[in-house]
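We modelled the chain as a single entity of 69 amino acids. Its sequence is:
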Amino acid sequence: MVKRIGPAAAYVTGACQSAIYDFETGKVYSLNRDGTRILSDFLTGRELTDQQSEFISQIRSATGLELAG
């Protein structure tokens, strides 16, 4: 699945892992299986635990992207 998550970014899922592609900076952020599940849940509007919400905040901080669920 490929999902646009910003004006110049995409979220791409694979069989087990995923990645965030930032086309402005050229950076690619790889997510393991757990990170993939949490971000996918967030993007589909599922309710997250406090710990999962913190992980999303860390992704926002690390990537500089405004993720919209």
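As a brief sanity check on the tokenised model: The chain has one domain: 2-63. The beta strands are 2-6, 9-13, 18-22, 27-31.
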